[in-house]
Amino acid sequence: MTAGKVALVTGGAAGIGAACAKRLAADGAAVGVLDLDEERCADTVAAIVDGGGRAVALGADVSDREQVRAAVAKLRAAFGPVTIAVNNAGVTETTPFEEVTEELFNLVYRVNVLGPILVTQEVVGDMKAAGWGRVVNISSSSAQTGSKGMAVYSSSKGAVISLTRTLAQEFGPHGITVNTIPPGSVMGTIMADAKISAETSARLASMLPVRRVGRPEDIANACAFLCSEDSGYVTGQIIGVNGGRVVS
Asked: Which domains does the chain have, with CATH numbers?
């Protein structure tokens, strides 16, 4: 449970981020729902409030320190110090390697790698002061396996995994755990944005040991554990939620 805690969930307007925000709120946390467009967070916030929880909508580009700082300040003003951070905001791309531009590289790495760094930097002081904190970085199973046509995206998520392991070692003495969840194929997120057909979804499901693609709630369930008191001895870990796509 996360009762009495204050959580920040980036990319919280929809998909995995929304599911994580709703689950943390259901477990008792007050939640800052952050997305690039604050107005897009309204549905997630409304669902939390309608369920008896506490939430506030926040707008920020996670790759812009001043915007992140202002959003965190708004969250603190609403609910107090932030001791849970779920770094979910990200961009994806599918581009043949030889067509990758510096502009594309910079965009993906600024959001997917610099974003979690800036967000964590802005809240880790609260965690140190409390002697307790939870950071969950959403990476990707493509970082573990590679993925054709996704050199920039998969490598950026690999950087998130390395970042997680490093911060776990730095912050552990302060009572702060840092873990990463690399999802597999999850409906309602990138797959939905790409308008993947039912036929393609069924084909993907047939390739997985569990014989179904994931749901945002599958990721949220693991996230809730990693943000709870029960996970205090778990840090620096890759908690794969992928239906068995990655088995090691």
From this structure: 6-184+217-231 (3.40.50.720)
Burial of residue 147 (number of CB atoms within 10 Å: 0-12, 13-18, 19+): middle
Rounded to whole angstroms, the Cα distance separating 157 from 159 reads 5
- Catalytic residue selected from 79, 109, 153, 171: 153
Handedness of CA 39, 44, 47, 50 (dihedral sign): negative
Indicate the length of the chain as a whole number.
248
Residue 227 has pLDDT above 90, yes or no: yes
pTM for this model (two decimals): 0.91
Does residue 86 register a pLDDT over 60?
Answer: yes
Q: What is the mean pLDDT of residues 134-158?
A: 89
Q: State yes or no: pLDDT of 116 exceeds 90.
A: yes
Residue 153 annotated to the active site: yes
